[in-house]
Amino acid sequence: MTIKQIKLSCTTLIVILSSWSNVKADKKSLSYPIVDTNQQYCYNETKSIPAPEQGEAFFGQDGNIEGNQPDYKDNGDGTVTDKVTSLMWQQDMGRKMTMAEAKKKVQELNLGGYNDWRIPNIKELYSLIEFNGSSNGEKAGQQRFIDTRYFKQPLGGEGNDTSSREIDAQTWSSTIYQGLTMVTDSTCFGVNFVDGRIKGYGMTNKRTGEANKMYFRFVRGNKQYGKNNFIDNGNGTISDLATGLMWQKADDGNTYTWKEALQYANDLKLAGYNDWHLPNAKELQSIVNYDRSPDYTNSPAIDPIFECTKDNIAEGKTGWHYYWTSTTHLDGLIPASEACYLSFGHAWGRQPRTDELCDVHGAGAQRSDPKTGNKEDYPKYFGPQKDLQSVYNAVRCYRLINSSDLKIVTGIKADPDYKNQDKKNRQKQKSKGPHFSFNPIFVQPSISTHKADWRFAFISDNHIGNCANGVMEAIVQNVIKNDVKVVLFCGDNINSGKSIDDSQFELQLKEWKKKARPLYDAGIKVLVIRGNHEADTKKAQSLWEESFGNDLNKTLTYRNVTFLGLDCYEEGEEIVNMSWIKNMIKKNKSNIVVPFGHEAIFSSYTFHPNVLDKHIGQRDELWQLFTNNGIKDYFCGHSHMYNHSTMSKDGKTLHQYVIGGGGGWLQPKKDPENKNKENFTISLVEYKSEYGYELVNVINNTLYPEWIKIASGTVQTPGKGNKGKTSRTSTIETVTVRMTKQLNLTAKQVKRVKEINNRYPSLFSKSATISRAVRKKMHDAYANELRTVLSSAQYTKWTTQRKSRRR
Q1: I need a surface site. Which of 170, 210, 323, 456 has the fewest CB within 10 A?
Q2: What is the pTM of this model?
């Protein structure tokens, strides 16, 4: 008898979510439903077996459990619609292409009457895989890992491609690996629908220096697919409202054979539940975060809301274990002898030329391991890249969310008067003193009700590298939902600066581009200027110009609006190019002119005291120039808040919008300092300490700005006597200096220690109100990271001195 798991239907989830006080679901469906693997049979360690029942060995594997079954529609026009995911796919991939050729082709593609096709990301592409396929080493099996009734799937070696193996028919995604494989290779993730794997593939042929070619299957529709919506339930579990799955927050630190892993899941009792399962390959892949990697973020490729055990892997290498899935991988001489796993850390193997043990396929790869073997015989190495086989892998279990999980899933008690509850919470926090939090409480963002001719949006201070979890992604998605045509970024997109080396600047910039990518993919025009965090060093400026051009001041005209992006650092700190601004305003004949910069013109209720009015003459000249030319609004960031204030004199008024809630730590407002403002009337219209962005509706040549709240948060209080710096930063710097002196750290160690300290601000903040249990977990993670940088003697010395200071 096959045990079928009760399928979480879209309707069921809507009913559940409608009763939650702070979460709303899409009325039509889950945004990220996982399609079943279609594995139809059950297996032991060597062969197929009758489906085991509960209590029997091998129960709970992929073939036991039925999820959202694949359901396709051939549209008869070269396209196929996936009824589960709401994605529409290109049916025939055609010939192999380079990435550049694919990007050009997809922009020109008009298929099925649609022209909004895109290269799928790795999660979208993996939704098509089915594990009823098989392979036999370098040769294809009888059945592909994709439904060939709907999709044309070629083999390698066909046509003119005589040098390739049958399995060399990989399909590339748009997901670029955040790191290097084979020591030096820039890498793109792809899915092999002939041998059933995700791997990272080098984008350049090392022998010829030319770009490699792969297949591409283009997609359109459901741009939310693949985006998680995690909530920490506070009881050792994480809920993903996008997929309807609840996850074990931390692995147990042990490794198991496949049979043992299944038994572990069957026996698990966690948070009052006993219906846990070992995930199938597609379920586990759904929680991979391809924006993270060991080399890029010094972490596994999973949202940091989860916890992963770091351990010795092989030959002195440390990293994160592979994680078992319940899916059997039909490959090799004994087809049922291996099961799929996901590598959240490095996908280890040997570099063919040097035999060096390295990351050969990228964090986030899906491969397979033998289901059983003697632990002392492993690791072993197998295949052309001598993939590391471990056999003993880690486990992370899941279960379905159901209606009885209400309090667990939301993380708060259901309250019919949520606004009042939120107000009570804020008052309670205020009584304790504001504190910094990287974990925002997300709300359902607004969809503008204005019947606008068109809309544009301002986003500022994302601070990638030190940002609140998920805020930028949520802003980007809401911007797209609001049908915005132009997006203006007001600087401090990344958290780099004087304390960060150029390589980190480059990595943070790369991550920001990835998070902003959906805007470009949606055809939205994007204009980006610098903030102080991008303007601290000459090298930083050159890296910036490589990405955004040599013109630091930016201009863009769309329909009836001309945007002027003012660089506040071209001529020195807090100095703008007045001649350029005057010239651009003079050139404008009929359009609405909208200026924006990183820094405020007036330090009116802004957190940062030194803004453009550091130079009084410049401030007054800008105000005069704008008001004399009918310019009513100025948009900026720098201070992390929403602040709408007005500056009036002689019957003229300029509105200043500080919209710095793009993801950086939230800051409190300050009363405006005098600074020779006696001739101006300064008025605060609205202030909010929350994450969000400014949406501007254009109606009949008039602008109607509105603040769109994305998430709640708590402010970070400035320390006394720190000249504007926070007590957190000062304390971290003090600890870093102390460690440097007492442990005689090398320059390389200093850099790494500083990065680690900055990742754990709450450990150094006296005002951070976190529980003892959370602090302990945070401290353990911090200690584990320090051990990777310090020698054993240094670590022992440091911990001993810390204990003596406490006494």
Answers
A1: 210
A2: 0.54
